[in-house]
Structures are given as structure tokens and as C-alpha cells.
Structure to design on (354 residues):
DNA sequence: TTTAATTATTAGGAAACTTAACTATCAGTT
DNA sequence: AACTGATAGTTAAGTTTCCTAATAATTAAA
């Protein structure tokens, strides 16, 4: 359902109009509904673009994260923390990437309980190609200007801080607005 | 993973900083990543709030849609169209709601192939209660002002139009900004 | 040192999406 | 009137991500 709908009207606008008559205008209801749809569209777009590489956006993010590490490897727990996904999802993600030869598991020398995921050369290659593809796509957000994108990002920072992802950033970090 | 992360830093900001060093600043990358996280937080919040009613946000939306209809019933296909979900997901959603006694299936008198989902009295009651709960929650968006929420909504309208959900709205529809 | 916490995996299940095949029925054409 | 093609809904199999809970191994703290 990431596909074009081609409806003659905006179903969210119409839902909100009906909603207003019973419960009063709720910009929050309109915003949350259209945010959900936007996410659905974008994940469809990104996953579609990554399909030729055998990747999903989640798996792509894991690969990119590994390339950021100087050793090319990270404990699985760290990966989950950084990507904000559940430990069982990390296991699954790394399972797949390992099966594709883009990553390999090694015991963590610093922690006998732990496991490192290490990106392979093939993994690095795929990451580069996939990144070029996504950049060409503007990550699906080509209809926005740079300024709008930063504004959107900062809008979400507020939400994420509010829900306890991390402490409110220092003021200088909001310079780009 | 809709839970608070309580990290000492913003993992998305950090990822973007690393990203910038290799591929250059990409506000689109930052925006899409934080949008995904925002969606994850919000769906967790909404589903959590609806759990006491035995609902998910998707099932709640289906109920609300039915209450909007004068007859309290709609063909399943229409439901999928309005909620922008896949036909097989509609079948599943209505299966669940029917199992809970909130909805019942009837043959569509106007189309021998079709099926109507009709909301029950129990369904109407649950919808009212659930709605009050979500309104109290501001749909998880309590950290924004009304103006910001409309701006956010309109931002997503642009994306949705761009991806062919529906034709660009007339200018008067953007009056609230 | 005993206890408690952490790391990762496994298993079972929910929810939503995808593709594909299938039944019925409708609608347009010849 | 019959044939063809499209539509409505279901079913099935498989993917993804989440959840809870249990487990084994190891580490850290009391």
C-alpha cells in the first residue's frame, strides 16, 4: 500500500471534516494520520529502491552504522540502541545480512557474552552503491527544500526529546533553522 | 521499541554527523530517519492507549470510519481505500473487530460480490470511549501548538500529493496556515 | 562469593504488508 | 444470451518488525 492511491479527494481531509462535526477540529488527529501515511509512502519508496540490493531500509541503516565504526564492527546491543530497534529485531537483521555475506558475527573480545557484527568488503561495496541510489532519490523527500527538511527534522527532535529518547539538545545544535 | 531510549545523545544527530563526513550533509537523510522514529514513537503511544479497549490504531480508524457513514456500514473495499490499507489487511482488521463483536459482516445488497462491515452498538460505545482517550492524549502530539500541527499536516499533504494519493487541493483548503 | 544485571538467542504470537491464486459476481461487447 | 474482462473479497504463504518470556553465558556489584 505504498502505491499511489489516485483518489479524487484527500481521504484524510475528508475523515477530518467528518471528525470535526462530532468531536471538534483536531489538528493532532489530522497530523498524526497524515504522518502515518507519509511514513508508509516513504518506507515503500526506500524499500523499493533498496530491493535490487537485497536490502530493506532497516538493514541498510545497520550497514551504514557499521561503516561509521572505525573497526567496521559493533556489538549487537549497540546496534539496536543506535538504530532504536528491539534486540530481537537486531538478531533478525544481522541474521539476514550475514546470510547475504554483507556482515559476519564474531565473538566480542571485550565481553564474553557479546557478539560483534562486522561488515565485510562486500557489505561496504553494497553500502556505497545503495547510498548513491538513495541520495539520487533524495530519500523520497525531493519535494522539500533544504530548509524545510531541517525544519521537519527539528520538529521531530522536539517529539523525540519529549518522549525521552535523549536530553534536550543545547541551543547551538538548533543553529540550522 | 516505542519506549523511551534515554540515551545521553541523539543517535540520529550522531549518525548524520558521521554521514556528513563521508557523503556530505543530507537533511533528507536526517528528516527521513527522524520521521521514522517519530512514527514508531507515536504508533507505540496510540496502540498503548488503545490496548485497554482491545484496539490498535488501525482498528480504531476502521471503527471511526464506520461511525461516519450514515448507515454505519461500508463495503470492505471502500474501507481499505479510505484508510489506505491493503485489501488483505482490511479482511484481517474486520475479522478481529467482528470477533470482538464491534462490527458484523453483511452481504452487500447493492453488489452480490461485496460485503459490508457494519458497526454494532458495542462498537459505537468503544469508539466513543477510545476517542475520548486519544483526545486526552492529544494523539501523542501534545508538544506542538495548533499552528504547528496544521503546518505539519500541510507538509505531509505535499508529499502525499507528490506520490499520487490525490490531486493537489484547491488553494482555499490551505487556509488554516 | 553469592546475587543481580547484561548480552544475545530462541520461541511463540500479534500486526500489517506482499504476491498469488481462487470464487463469485458484475458489466460491457459482440 | 453468452463470452470476456474487471471487481470484491478471501485464503494462503511468506516477510518484517514488534512484543513477552525463557534461557545460557558472562560480567559486575554487594
Amino acid at each position: 500500500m505504498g502505491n499511489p492511491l489516485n483518489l479524487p479527494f484527500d481521504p484524510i481531509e475528508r475523515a477530518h471534516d467528518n471528525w470535526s462535526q462530532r468531536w471538534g477540529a483536531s489538528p493532532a488527529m489530522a497530523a498524526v494520520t497524515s504522518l502515518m501515511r507519509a511514513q508508509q509512502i516513504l518506507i515503500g519508496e526506500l524499500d523499493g529502491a533498496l530491493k535490487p540490493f537485497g536490502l530493506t531500509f532497516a538493514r541498510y541503516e545497520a550497514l551504514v552504522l557499521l561503516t561509521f565504526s572505525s573497526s567496521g564492527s559493533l556489538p549487537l546491543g549497540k546496534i539496536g540502541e543506535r538504530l532504536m530497534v528491539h534486540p530481537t529485531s537486531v538478531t533478525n537483521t544481522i541474521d539476514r545480512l550475514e546470510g547475504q555475506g554483507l556482515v559476519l558475527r564474531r565473538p566480542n573480545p571485550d565481553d564474553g557474552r557479546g557478539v560483534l557484527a562486522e561488515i565485510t568488503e562486500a557489505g561496504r561495496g553494497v553500502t556505497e552503491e545503495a547510498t548513491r541510489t538513495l541520495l539520487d532519490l533524495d530519500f523520497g523527500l525531493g519535494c522539500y527544500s533544504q530548509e524545510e527538511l531541517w525544519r521537519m527534522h527539528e520538529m521531530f527532535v522536539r517529539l523525540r526529546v519529549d518522549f525521552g529518547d535523549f536530553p534536550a539538545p543545547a541551543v547551538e545544535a538548533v543553529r540550522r533553522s
Summary: Chain A has seven helices and three strands.
